[in-house]
Amino acid sequence: MDASSGLATQPEHPLTPGSGATSDPHHDDHGHDHHELPFWRKYIISTDHKVIGIQYGISGLIFLFFGFSLMMLMRWQLAYPGQELPVIGNMLGHLFGPGSMPDGKMTPEFYNSLGAMHGTIMIFLGIVPIAFAAFGNFVVPLQIGAPDMTYPKINMASYQAFFVGGVVMLISFFVPGGAAKGGWTSYTPLAVISDKGPTYDAFWNGQTLWLVGFIFLITSSLLGAVNFIATIIQLRAKGMTWMRLPFFVWAQFVTAFLLLLAFPPLESAVVMQLMDRVAGTSFFLPSGLVVNGAALHNSGGGSPLLWQHLFWFLGHPEVYVLILPGMGIVAEVIANNTRKPLWGYKSLVFAALVLGFLSFIVWAHHMWLTGMGSVVSAFFQTTTMIISIPSVIILSAFFISLWGGSIRFNTPMLFATAFLPMFGIGGLTGIPLAFNSADLYLHDTYYVIAHFHYIVAPGTIFAVFAGVYFWYPKATGRRMSEFWGKVHFWPSLICMNVIFLPMFLQGMLGMHRRWYDGGQGWNLSGEKVWGLSGFEWNTPISIAAWTMGLAQIPFIINFFWSMKRGEKVDINPWHATTLEWTAPSPPPHGNFTTTPTVYRGPYEYSLPGRENDFTMQTEPLTDSDRKAYEAAAAAGVH
Amino acid sequence: MEIPYTVTARPDTGLWNAKVGIWLFLASEVMLFGGLFSAYVFLRLDAEPGAWPHGLLNVPVGTMNTAILIASSVTVVLAWAALKMRRYRAYWWYMLVTILCGVIFLVVKLAYEWPQKFDHFGAVIKKDKLEKYEKYLGNHHLAEHGLAPRMEISGHLHNKEALNDPNAKEYEIAMDPVNADPTNPAMDRPHFLYVPPTDKIATVEKEDVEYANMFLPKHSAYFASYFTITGLHGAHVLGGVLVFLYMWLPVSKKVYKRNPEHLANRVEVAGLFWHFVDLVWIFVFPLFYLL
Q: Could you tell me if A263 lies within 8 Å of chain B, comparing CB atoms?
């Protein structure tokens, strides 16, 4: 049975002539309805998955740039510690209040705020909303042939909760004492006691607002995750079996499970830290804690380590929440632009599932230095080693997919191919950190910063850009400029590497990740690499970071300019095979003009003996196809 | 545009949408309460001997609340079954009983059990001063029997102003029976029945006290977890009651008239949630009241 038979059992819409009606007029009627909706219902509180996806996407991109701007400020302090920030320094001092940048010079507290909020915003308000929520919302229902998500209203609520959470995080910059400064991990007891000066207000302070904002963000991701999983289980079109799902859908499916099961323990931890700050409990405050030379008046009996366990129980699956959707996007773009099937589809799917499962039992490798004991460390070191296997399977499958393809290097493909070595560097440099003996040396240095940024920044963010350029024609009916796309790509790629490669050096020279003066005041090993000491390397890194900020301008202009002026394209400009390319561009409310039926796998490119080098999933099998399938099955090829 | 499978099951999965959703949601709820319960375990294992309180909650009242919640889980199933048999009247009554059970549970919790705790006081004595208060703590007696020491004198605080007055030198506590008669073997184990404080007064000097407070969340790791978990559980009960109320009000009769199966499905989904809330309580009750 397919979706259309389900439609017939619904209460009939007055405009639908009857249950026997074909789906064409049905959808057209509703598309027509949609156009009559007022602006605020169409774009502000829409329940349409595509609009919600775009809402998430635009908000996420704005937050991404905001979070990056915080880092550009920090890079000034790192390269030129204690010097006045020219031009905008004073203005920022006025904007963020007296404790931030008096006379244009950054205070250590403000630096800590920027660091904590850079991490929080980039991860929870930037990458996750874009890679998971935006692309997932826009693309997944289209790729599985569904008219919308299973729960459109919950979908809307998800975005609204995200929006409130984001606003709370932004407000926290402007309360007395400034935004949260306990790092994006909010380690206790530091985070519990931060800002508790004489003017402490139990609610209006950075750390408490951070926690409140988090409750909204967790709610948002919970609603989203339930919706994604249910949609993929329930609303696949007729013929869309599990092994015909595009890899992107699989990646989102696993990601949704990670969010569903890993976020709630953090929510419980956030509630407990909120109780610690607001109700005076001591969940995370040990007995006998002394702060500024005075004993803290608390009942004690809590455990700082408990926070770390609960935080990293989310924190590690979160890493895969960040990377899996990126891998999904890259898979689609690579298959499309090599014009051949993705190599090892099944191994990719099972690798993603194993990755998802293993990501729940590796969290304590973030905690080698807490003295958990060697038995616990040995366990988590082993699982951490094992989890590299599925990651390598995925990456290898992508590399092999390139082999022998006639690759089209358009902008999405440039970003997708750049993803592969960048993710490779990020992943391989993680192996020393997985060994607790090596990590003792590298822990909390710039080496760690470089390692995970290689995965998230030139990894996931490049995948996100690939996705934006790739699906832009579906969302708007126009293509983004190829020329400006390349102007965006090359400087970004170069800058990314100039920023993060030297950080490995800095880390190995002993530069701590939380020093607010870039290591100037500390006695680093004194060794020079290519004529620059660990501290001096900050300057080229900072210059590259600001250059990369400039390199995003072509993207921003291209993004908006192409909405109205971009080259108009037909519904399948990339000659892709998956279902979203059978819907009109932009797809109307309800997505498809005819309910799609699926006959084939997702990546049937360059089938022999065909006029086109791509065969849509909706194209029925011919006799020769059947014979070819049988022959392949007999030969053991899948 | 209509979403398929909102009421009828998708043939290959055998499920309608909301049922998939509620099970996923419950999975995440398991992780949420799982996080809190593991925090409880973590904190309790970390606690010093004698520092984790026992017998401070009212077991008979807790037992009654447990029974009420289990009864409501039964009535919600009966309500659902009545809808399946298309007996709206019976459904209406069963649902009413379910809602009332939820409300009684909340009232007992929030208007009786919690305030009783807020009115209670405990002072943890500094380790080097325990000997001074031996007559209230009975640690010699406990040590003889191989039991964990007592460090706290609890009861009703007579001079409540002493809590916040820096000039006050001492607390006057109308002691709980356990401190009034500490060497009585009957006091070695927590009471099953709640026994109110006696009128025997202990005078405890403030400077001998490690930490003292009313039985608020900040009193101890025990009460912190108790109030956080029961508070979050109470919020879930309240949510369930509100959803049931919506399904019980006339507005849902319209859904019933249009498609009775639709309302039955809604009740089933809300009922699954209700069972989960019940199940959480089945863990809360022994962990905090009995163990």
A: yes
A271 to B228: CB separation less than 8 angstroms, yes or no: yes
Q: Give the distance from residue A580's alpha carbon to the nearest chain B alpha carbon, in angstroms.
A: 17
Distance between CA atoms of residues A163 and A56, nearest Å: 9
- Report CA Rg, chain A: 26
Residues A450-498 pLDDT 10s: 999 999 999 999 999 999 999 999 999 999 999 999 999 999 999 999 9
- The ipTM, to two decimals, is 0.95
Q: What Cα–Cα distance (Å) separates residue B75 from each residue in B18, B22, B92, B244, B267?
A: 21, 20, 11, 12, 12
Distance CA A327, CA A253 (A): 13
Residues of A in contact with B27 (CB under 8 A): 260-261
Q: Which of A272, A261, A392, A252 is nearest to A316 (CA)?
A: A261
Does any CB of chain B come closer than 8 Å to the CB of residue A283?
Answer: yes
- Whole-angstrom Cα distance, residue A623 to residue A24? 29
- In this complex, do B39 and A235 lie within 8 Å of one another by their Cβ atoms? no
Taking all residues of chain A, what is their mean pLDDT, rounded to a whole number? 90
Burial per residue of B34-52, b for 16 or more beta-carbon CB atoms within 10 angstroms, e otherwise? bbbbbbbebbbebbeebbb
What's the pLDDT tens digit per position in B113-149? 999 999 999 999 998 999 999 999 999 999 999 998 9
Q: Which CATH class is domain A46-287+297-302?
A: mainly alpha
Query: What torsion, rounded to 10 degrees, do the Cα atoms A304, A305, A309, A314 define?
Result: 30
Q: Flag whether pLDDT at A40 surpasses 90.
A: no
What pTM does this model have? 0.93
Nearest-CA residue of chain B relative to A272? B228
Region label for A2, one of left (φ > 0), alpha (ψ between -120 and 50) or beta (otherwise): beta
Q: Which residues in chain B are closer than 8 Å to A229, comparing Cβ atoms?
A: 20, 24
**Is the separation of the CB atoms in A190 and A286 below 8 Å?**
no
The CATH 1.20.120.80 portion of chain B extends over 36-118+220-290
pLDDT at A625: 85
Disruptive mutation site among B3, B6, B206 for chain A (greatest number of A CBs within 10 Å): B3
CA distance B52 to B33: 21
Minimum-distance CB partner of B220 among A234, A267, A301: A301
In angstroms, what separates the C-alpha of B42 from chain A's closest C-alpha?
A: 7
CA dist B144 and A322 (Å) reads: 58
A440's tokens: 């003792």
**Confidence at A355, pLDDT banded by 50, 70, 90:** very high
What does A228-261 look like in DSSP terms, one character per residue?
A: HHHHHHH-PPBT--GGGS-HHHHHHHHHHHHHHH
Mean pLDDT of B254-271: 96
Token digits for B164? 């916040």
| Owner of token pair 């690759």 | A407
Domain ranges across chain A: 46-287+297-302
Residues of chain A contacting B219 with CB distance shorter than 8 Å: 299
| Distance in angstroms (rounded) separating the CA atoms of residues B235 and B248 | 20
Q: Which of A267, A268, A289, A288 is nearest to A189 (CA)?
A: A289
How many of the other CB atoms lie within 10 Å of CB of A441? Answer: 12
Cβ neighbours for A309, distance < 8 A, ≥ 6 positions apart? A363, A364, A367, B42
Q: Is the pLDDT of residue A244 over 70?
A: yes
Task: Decide yes or no: CATH 1.20.120.80 for domain B36-118+220-290.
Answer: yes
